[in-house]
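Consider today's protein:

***
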Amino acid sequence: LADGAGTLAFSYIGPELTHPIYRDGTIGKAKEHLQDTAKALHQQLSATGGYAYVSVNKALVTQASSAIPVVPLYISLLYKIMKARGLHEGCIEQIQRLYSKNLQGKVKLDQEGRIRIDDWEMKPEVQSEITSLWPRITTENLYELTDFASYQSEFLRLFGFGLDGVDYEAETDPEKISGTPISVG
């Protein structure tokens, strides 16, 4: 690799509420392996001015997070609280903050050698509010106590649904893409 080469992996830790999924099982073991690998790579790359870091990011609506029990509800609640406090960031805003504030000059790392841009999610006052509201959420008050509508909208957009300007009721020919017949074989 060229002198100064760097690598950056993305991870998620989350609060104790999600630790049975994100820290205690096979996902947690994979995250530990990622961290260990980054440390070993960092030792090698730093000798030539490079780096290898793990960035611990905020909970986001992704295909992976959507499939994990409890996480969609947690994200729905988190987004409502973070939006009310002016702390919410989408994927692009979060990565912009990572590069502009955390990878410029001296890189700020936690005790484990990770960059933490989940810092706004993990603020004690944010987590305290989640802990307080979590046991009160029911089917009847889901939309009042959480931002499930936003979560659902982001989830649908991951798969190409809920997009402005698309007529989802229009007839389609599954054998054609953009008017071009598909040949099989």
About this structure: The longest strand covers residues 6-11. The first helix runs from residue 19 to 22. The two ends are 42 Å apart (CA to CA). Helices lie at 19-22, 26-46, 63-66, 71-84, 91-102, 124-133, 142-145, 148-158.
